[in-house]
C-alpha cells in the first residue's frame, strides 16, 4: 500500500508540513496524549496523508517518557570544547574518520564533485552523531516525534516534524516501526523528519531516500543540507570562514559547531 502512494507531489509535502492542527490541548504529561493523537489524525488526512497511512503510522504510537527525559536533559552542550571532545571521543572519531575517508575514496570524491563539500565535515558529523552508523538510536521514531508534538515546550515545531514523518511513511521512506534517536532523528547522520523531506537525497540511485541503510544516501543528504545552509564550494569551514555558517545550521550548540570544524579539519589534513 505504501509503495503505491509514493507519488506525493512537492506541493502536497509542503502542505502536509504546514497545515493547521485540530484544536487539541498540548500537555506536559501523558494524560491527554491519546486524545491529542485522535484529534491530530483527521488533520493529517486533510493535509494530504492517506487515511490508511495515518492508521498504520499511529497503530503503535505511545507517549514516550524517554524522549521527554532526553529533551529536558541536554547537558553535554554546556561543556567546554575540551570536555565535549573528550565526552564525544573526538580523537577516536578523527582516527576512524581518516580510515573511512581512505577506504571510501570514490564515494567522498563523488559527493565533493556534486556538492562541493569535502569529506572532513561529513565524517565529523557522521562520527559524532552515530559513531559512523554503529548506533542509530533505539526509540520508536513516530512515538518520539508525536510525544514532542503533543508536549507543550516545542509543540508547533514538532507538529511540523510529525507531518513530515507521515509524509515519509507515505512515500515509503520510513517504516512505521522505525527506531532512531530520542527526538525522532533518523539515520546515520540523524536527520529530523522535516530535513529528510527538504534535503534527503537518493545517493545510491535505488529510488528511495534511505538514511538508515545507505551511507551514500546519508552522506549525500548531509552534504545537501550543508549546501542548503549556505555552503560555498572551495571556501573554508573554520570559525570566521564562509562555510562555518553552514556548520552552524547543523546544530545550534556552539561547542558542537566547533567540534565539527576541528574534527573535519583534522580528517581533511589540517
Notable characteristics:
two-stranded antiparallel sheet; Lysozyme; 2 domains; 2 strands; 270 residues; mainly alpha
Summarize the structure.
The chain is mostly helical and 270 residues long. 57% of the residues lie in helices and 1% in strands.
Fraction of residues in helices?
A: 55-70%
Q: How would the global form be characterised?
A: globular
Distance between the termini: 50 Å
Top CATH class of the largest domain: Mainly Alpha
InterPro entries: Lysozyme-like_dom_sf, MltB-like, SLT_2
Keywords: Signal
Signal peptide: 1-23
Domain Transglycosylase SLT: 33-237
Give an overview in words.
The chain has 270 residues and is mostly helical. It has 2 domains: 3-71 and 141-182, no CATH class; 81-136 and 198-268, Lysozyme (Orthogonal Bundle), CATH 1.10.530. The protein has helices spanning 10-18, 33-46, 51-58, 65-72, 81-88, 90-103, 105-115, 119-130, 141-150, 155-171, 193-199, 215-228, 244-250, 254-268; strands spanning 139-140, 179-180. It has a two-stranded antiparallel ribbon with strand order 1-2. Helix 11 packs across helix 12. The protein starts with 9 loop residues before the first helix and ends with a helix. 46% of the residues are buried. Mean pLDDT is 90; it is low at 1-22.
Amino acid at each position: 500500500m505504501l509503495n503505491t502512494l509514493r507519488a506525493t507531489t512537492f506541493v502536497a509535502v509542503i502542505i502536509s508540513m504546514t497545515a493547521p492542527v485540530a484544536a487539541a490541548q498540548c500537555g506536559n504529561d501523558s494524560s491527554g496524549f491519546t486524545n491529542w493523537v485522535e484529534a491530530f489524525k483527521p488533520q493529517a488526512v486533510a493535509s494530504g496523508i492517506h487515511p490508511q497511512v495515518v492508521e498504520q503510522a499511529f497503530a503503535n504510537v505511545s507517549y514516550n517518557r524517554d524522549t521527554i527525559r532526553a529533551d529536558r536533559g541536554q547537558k553535554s552542550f554546556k561543556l567546554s570544547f575540551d570536555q565535549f571532545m573528550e565526552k564525544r571521543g573526538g580523537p577516536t572519531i578523527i582516527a576512524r574518520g581518516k580510515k573511512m575517508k581512505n577506504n571510501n575514496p570514490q564515494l567522498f570524491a563523488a559527493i565533493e564533485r556534486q556538492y562541493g563539500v569535502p569529506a572532513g565535515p561529513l565524517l565529523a558529523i557522521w562520527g559524532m552523531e552515530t559513531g559512523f552508523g554503529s548506533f542509530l538510536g533505539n526509540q520508536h521514531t513516530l512515538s518520539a516525534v508525536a510525544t514532542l508534538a503533543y508536549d507543550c515546550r516545542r509543540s508547533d515545531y514538532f507538529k511540523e516534524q510529525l507531518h513530515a514523518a507521515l509524509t515519509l511513511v507515505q512515500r515509503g521512506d520510513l517504516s512505521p516501526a522505525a527506531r532512531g534517536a530520542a527526538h525522532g532523528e533518523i539515520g546515520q547522520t540523524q536527520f529530523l523528519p522535516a530535513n529528510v523531506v527538504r534535503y534527503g537525497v537518493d545517493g545510491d540511485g535505488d529510488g528511495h531516500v534511505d538514511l538508515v541503510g545507505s551511507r551514500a544516501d546519508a552522506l549525500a543528504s548531509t552534504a545537501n543540507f550543508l549546501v542548503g545552509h549556505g555552503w560555498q564550494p572551495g571556501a573554508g569551514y573554520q570559525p570566521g570562514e564562509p562555510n562555518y555558517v553552514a556548520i552552524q545550521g547543523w546544530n545550534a550548540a556552539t561547542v558542537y559547531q566547533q567540534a565539527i570544524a576541528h574534527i573535519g579539519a583534522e580528517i581533511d589534513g589540517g
